[in-house]
Design brief:
This protein has about 110 residues and is of the alpha+beta class. It folds into 2 domains: about 5-60, OB fold (Dihydrolipoamide Acetyltransferase, E2P), CATH 2.40.50; about 65-114, no CATH class. The protein has helices at about 40-50, 90-105; strands at about 15-20, 25-30, 35-40, 55, 60, 65-70, 75-80, 85, 110-114. A 5-stranded antiparallel beta sheet has the order 3-2-1-5-4.
Length: about 110
C-alpha cells in the first residue's frame, strides 16, 4: 500500500529518523525545524523504507546520517548528525553493526567510547 493515499512522503534521503509513539510515527527531516506526526505505525515505514535501520523498538534511522556508534559498558548507541543518541537493542546489535560496516568503507567510527 503506497504512502501517497494522504500526503506523499518526501525523498527518503531527506529523512534523518523516524520514532514510534503507539500507532503514530514522528518523522524528523534534514532541513525542517518541526517534525511531522503521521498516523501510521513504524512497521509500516520500515516496509516502505527498506534501507533504513530499525535499531530498537521505537526508532528507524537513515544510515546516511550515522556519525558514530558509541560503546558504553555492554551497550551500544548510535549517534546521528542531529546529535540524537539511540540505544541499539541487544537483539538488533549484530545486524545493525554488520549493515553499518558494509555501508562504510571506514570502520573507525564504529567503536568509539563515550
Amino acid at each position: 500500500m503506497p504512502i501517497s493515499r494522504s500526503k506523499p512522503l518526501p525523498r527518503p534521503e531527506l529523512i534523518i529518523r523516524l520514532e514510534a509513539d503507539g500507532c503514530y510515527t514522528t518523522i524528523y527531516y534534514k532541513n525542517q525545524a518541526r517534525p511531522a506526526l503521521i498516523s501510521r505505525t513504524l512497521l509500516y515505514f520500515q516496509r516502505e523504507l527498506p534501507h533504513f535501520l530499525r535499531v530498537n523498538r521505537s526508532a528507524l534511522i537513515n544510515p546516511a546520517y550515522v556519525v558514530t556508534v558509541v560503546r558504553e559498558d555492554k551497550k551500544r548507541y548510535v549517534r546521528l548528525t542531529d546529535e540524537t543518541l539511540f540505544l541499539i537493542a541487544r537483539r538488533r546489535a549484530e545486524e545493525t553493526m554488520a549493515t553499518l560496516k558494509t555501508l562504510s568503507h571506514s570502520d573507525s567510527y564504529l567503536t568509539q567510547a563515550v
